[in-house]
Amino acid sequence: MNQKRILIYIFLIVAGLGWSLLDGPALLYGEQDTASKPLVYLLDVDGSINPALADYIMKGIEKAETDKAAALVIRMDTPGGVLTTTKTIIKSMINSTVPVVVYVGPTGSSAASAGAMITVCADVAAMAPGTNIGAAHPVGGGGEEISKTMSEKVINDITAYIRGIVTEKGRNAEWAEKTIRESVSATAREALDLKAIDLIADSVPELLEKIDGRVIKKKIGDVTLKTKNAQVERIKPGFRFRILDAVANPNVAYILMMLGTLGLIMEMYHPGMIFPGVVGAICLLLALFALQVLPVNYVGFMLIVLSIVLFILELKVTSFGLLAIGAIISLTLGSIMLFEGGETAMRVSWSVIVPTVAIISSFFIFALGLVVRAWRKKPRTGEQGLMGEVGVAITDIHDTGKIAVHGEYWNARSASLVPKGERVRVIRVDKLSVFVIRE
User: Fold this and answer.
1) Which structural domains are found in the chain, ordered by start?
2) Pick the catalytic residue: 48, 110, 113, 330?
3) Which long-range CB contacts under 8 A does 411-416 form with residues at least 24 apart?
4) What is the per-residue pLDDT across 347-383, written as a single tens digit (0 to 9) for each?
5) Active site residue 153
6) Which of 153, 195, 217, 420 is catalytic?
7) Which candidate in 64, 217, 288, 346 could, as Cys together with 69 as Cys, close a disulfide (CB 3.0–4.6 Å)?
């Protein structure tokens, strides 16, 4: 009955999570009159550029295309983020059949680093007064400078990528390159004067009024924006995005995967504990959820799986530690290779790998030690448990007699006379009798 209840609870939790993961649009400006007014979707970006955000933007673009929206507006305030994710977002915007407008706002916002690249590559680039854009020089995942050789390769690649798109959009490609090479920044007014953006608007309604009638070049042909008095619906970042935003960090996903695996192994070795199994299953599901948007290297993933198998085999097979050594090597290599990409931000940090490998290895080595000690420990029951035990003769023993040993009374035999009360040691067991010698 208890197991049925637990399964019901788990099902309800998973069902509730699945329902809450659904994102839905909310009417923001205008009246509910889709028949007479153009439809514009609004996405809010307030935070770092990461795989979860890319998933949110890509789904927003898909919805705008499905509903044949007049435009998609991305209202942005970001300090920057992951380069590979930035390229994914830019690629989605360029290939979208719906015009994508990036609006740096409201006042006080900024589009730094990756945010600047996304803005200048949009179909329409706009900013609110009192905002800034730029400082797109690449750095490591923790904000540190990357090596000179790698920095040159990355910068040359990014500048060539951005110049091509920005030139196509008719904006200032030289300034865009300076933001990458020299980390230059500009205010909204300066960016407009430099032709890095298309316009300045105080609000989304003003933005839509100003861009109305613009002709946007898309792969399907020229698209004329019809956004004046548009009905604006905001696609809210639902619970799915918030969960993904929290776990779509390579370090977090890696730790969740390890915790999930350990929890399930503990449950398999100690059925009925429930807690490790439930926690392990939740952690593993969250890790798999994060792996949907992270660039997983499946060789690294299989190496981690292999390491777990080798650790378990070490508990079952006498290999004198060779399987454990192989498991530790496999786990370390798999952890390093788990996520693809040249960016530090998209790899598991050494500060996470080292303690995780050490803890998991220690866990299995400790379990192995318990198994070895159990093998070496003298049996405490049955005939083997009596061998070598010391007891006391409760009668004289010659041919036959009785002793108290191991908390029990046994018929005893001895090759020589053993007086009552003497200490004896068991040397052999024969059915219901023991053979003893004087201690």
Assistant:
1) 23-237 (3.90.226.10), 295-377 (no CATH), 382-438 (2.40.50.140)
2) 113
3) 412/436, 414/438
4) 788 888 888 888 887 877 776 666 556 555 555 555 6
5) yes
6) 153
7) 64
